[in-house]
């Protein structure tokens, strides 16, 4: 146990040494807790955002915990000391749970203070807050245990991130369902519902505690998946070099993406989220509003290119392949545009699938539950769904790619851009809830995004060069 606290203190020291990330975390909590109550005067929704943001920031922290040590070649030297692998894991567990609780409480407290300033009613009793706190603690424990286990078995942070996100976001959605249940039903029944959700979380925690207990010291040294993937990536890159420069890079990135089956499945789950939001909105509020799907799409879509481009560009620096890539005859601009096209194409396909599923789900509910009522997107909703969402994806590609290339720690670029992606939901929120002419303001916002993207793309294209990239590396 003493060695576990030694690891925890060491991790805590490293965490506080990065002053820039500390400022970033504080600004993220301040921005979310201070702005959401102005748009949605519902405390439960503010807590939803606080939980979603906390889990979003917790996932890369967990992915970097052990898989990151393996990538940086520091895990072997760390495990060769007298400190056991289990002590390292539980030390990182303590850091993760402290971070999650502090960040969630800070964001929630800021949201409560902002709600009081705006005159909104909190509407929660002391028992409600006890239930909210217990569910949050169990959510973080289950997410962290599953995340550390996956990070211990993953060969790199990219695969670890995908595996952890695949487990963390369903647990986050489970928390939202539990919070909705205990705050909208009678107190007598809320106790039983609370017990049911706590039982589910305890079961998840016990499963991963057993899996972690079965890990052995040699397990932490396993790096088979990473080596195999590297060989496949190298062979495919040489095969695509025969094509045109831009096409070769694009084909290489797409073929490599096709090998990440779990990541693609994760994208498919995200496509179902807007349709699920509409159905849940109808179930709890009695009204099927397609604006919920539009706003959730505006929140969800920028995250897809963020993850893809961060690992595409930042991964070249982490895996030490950027120097060899730049030494090839490929043009720098061709590489940049090809890498940028991949997340934009993937996001566009996801957008088409997601909007179609939402429309199908809405019409099914309208046919069976509302006596044949049909639903169709309005013109302003279509503008927010397609051109605005695609332009937002391009903006996030430019932001994330620049941050990942320029920062000494590429993962910090992913952390920062992940929260910056939340900013893209506020203009659609303002258009839907604060303006009367939705169509006019949707067109204005679309034009602004197009102009800003064009200017940023031209400036980046002019400044990008091999010597400049080598300096960033």
Automatic annotation (TrEMBL):
Keywords in alphabetical order: Membrane, Transmembrane, Transmembrane helix
Signal sequence interval, chain numbering: none
Sequence intervals crossing the membrane: 21-40, 46-63, 93-117, 129-149, 161-183, 189-210, 262-284, 290-314, 335-362, 382-401, 413-433, 439-457
Keyword check for Flavoprotein: no
Keyword Transmembrane tagged: yes
Identification of the protein by name: ABC transporter permease
Taxonomic source organism: Irregularibacter muris
Upper taxonomic lineage: Bacteria, Bacillati, Bacillota, Clostridia, Eubacteriales
């Amino acid at each position: 146990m003493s060695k576990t606290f030694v690891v925890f203190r060491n991790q805590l020291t490293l965490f506080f040494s990065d002053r820039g990330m500390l400022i970033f975390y504080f600004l993220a909590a301040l921005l979310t807790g201070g702005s959401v109550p102005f748009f949605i005067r519902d405390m439960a929704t503010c807590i939803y955002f606080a939980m979603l943001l906390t889990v979003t920031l917790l996932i890369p922290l967990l992915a970097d915990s052990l898989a990151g040590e393996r990538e940086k070649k520091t895990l072997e030297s760390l495990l060769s000391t007298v400190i056991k692998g289990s002590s390292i894991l539980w030390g990182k567990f303590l850091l993760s749970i402290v971070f999650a609780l502090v960040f969630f409480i800070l964001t929630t407290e800021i949201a409560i203070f902002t709600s009081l300033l705006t005159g909104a009613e909190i509407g929660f009793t002391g028992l409600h807050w006890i239930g909210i706190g217990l569910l949050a603690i169990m959510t973080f424990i289950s997410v962290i245990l599953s995340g550390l286990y996956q990070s211990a078995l993953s060969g790199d942070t990219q695969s670890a991130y995908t595996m952890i996100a695949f487990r963390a976001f369903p647990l986050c959605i489970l928390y939202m369902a539990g919070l909705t249940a205990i705050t909208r039903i009678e107190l007598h029944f809320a106790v039983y519902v609370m017990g049911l959700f706590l039982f589910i979380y305890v079961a998840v925690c016990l499963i991963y505690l057993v899996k972690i207990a079965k890990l052995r010291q040699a397990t932490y040294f396993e790096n088979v998946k990473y080596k195999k993937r590297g060989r496949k990536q190298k062979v495919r890159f040489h095969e695509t070099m025969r094509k045109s420069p831009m096409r070769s890079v694009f084909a290489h990135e797409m073929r490599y993406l096709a090998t990440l089956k779990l990541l693609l499945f994760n994208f498919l789950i995200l496509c179902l989220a807007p349709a699920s939001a509409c159905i849940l909105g109808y179930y709890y509020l009695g009204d099927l509003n397609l604006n919920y799907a539009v706003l959730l799409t505006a929140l969800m879509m920028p995250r897809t290119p963020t993850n893809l481009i961060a690992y595409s560009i930042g991964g070249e620096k982490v895996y030490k392949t950027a120097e060899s890539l730049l030494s090839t005859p490929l043009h720098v601009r061709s590489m940049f545009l090809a890498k940028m096209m991949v997340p934009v194409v993937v996001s566009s396909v996801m957008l088409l699938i997601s909007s179609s599923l939402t429309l199908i789900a809405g019409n099914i509910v309208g046919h069976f539950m509302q006596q044949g009522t049909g639903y169709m997107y309005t013109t302003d909703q279509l503008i927010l769904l397609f051109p605005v969402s695609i332009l937002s994806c391009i903006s996030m590609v430019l932001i994330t790619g620049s941050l990942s290339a320029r920062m000494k720690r590429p993962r910090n670029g992913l952390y920062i851009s992940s929260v910056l992606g939340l900013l893209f939901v506020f203009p659609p929120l303002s258009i839907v809830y604060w303006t009367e002419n939705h169509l006019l303001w949707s067109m204005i916002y679309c034009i602004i995004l197009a102009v800003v993207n064009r200017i940023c793309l031209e400036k980046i294209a002019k400044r990008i060069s091999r010597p400049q990239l080598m300096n960033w590396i």
